[in-house]
Amino acid sequence: MTPYAVTYTLHLLAALIWVGGMFFAWMILRPAAVSTLEAPARLKLWLEVFQRFFYWVWAAVIVLPITGVGMLHLGFSGFETAPRYVHIMIGLYIVMLALFLRIQALQLPELRRAVAGEDWPNGGAVLGRIRRLVGLNLILGLVVTGIAAARPGF
C-alpha cells in the first residue's frame, strides 16, 4: 500500500465517522428518542451520546487536517498547486470545525447545567439549538463528501 493510499484511507475513515455519526444521530437516533422517551430521559441520553460521540469527533477533527495536508503534499506538491475543489473542501472543514467547537464549548456545558438542575424546558431548548447546528454540519459534511466523490480521477 502506498503512502498516499494509507493517508487517503485514514482521511476517509475519519470523515465517515464524523459525517456518518451525525447522519445516524439526526436521522435515526433523534426520531427514536423523541417517540419513546420523556424529556428528562431523552436529555440524559443525549448527554451520554454526545460524550461518547465527541471523542470520535475529536479524533476525526485531528486526523482530517493531518491526512489532508499529507494528501496535499503527496498528490499536489502543496496547497498552491491543489485544484479549487480541495480549497473548497478545506474551507468547509473549517466551517464544520467552528460549528463543532461552538457545540462543544458553548452548547454542551449549557445542556449539562440544565440537566443537572433538572431544568427540562431549558435543556430542551439547548438540545434544539444543538440539533440545528448538527443539522447544518451534516449538510456541510454531505456537501464535502459529494465534492470528494465527484472529484476528477474517479
Task: Give the topology.
Blueprint: H1 3-36, H2 39-76, H3 84-116, H4 120-150
Kindly list the characteristics that best describe this protein.
154 residues; elongated; 4 helices; 88% helix; mainly alpha
Brief summary of the model shown:
The protein has helices at residues 3-36, 39-76, 84-116, 120-150. By secondary structure, it is an all-alpha fold.
What is the mean pLDDT?
96
Low-confidence stretches: none
Quick one: overall form? Answer: elongated
User: What is the number of beta strands?
Assistant: 0
Helix content: over 70%
CA radius of gyration is 18 Å
Strand content: under 5%
Structural class label: mainly alpha
Tally of domains: 1
H/E series: HHHH
How is the biggest beta sheet arranged?
none
The separation of the N and C termini measures: 18 Å
The helix tally amounts to 4
Structural overview:
The protein is an all-alpha fold and about 150 residues long. It has one domain (about 5-150). It has helices at about 5-35, 40-75, 85-115, 120-150. Helix 1 packs antiparallel against helix 4. The radius of gyration is 18 Å and the shape is elongated. The two termini are about 20 Å apart.
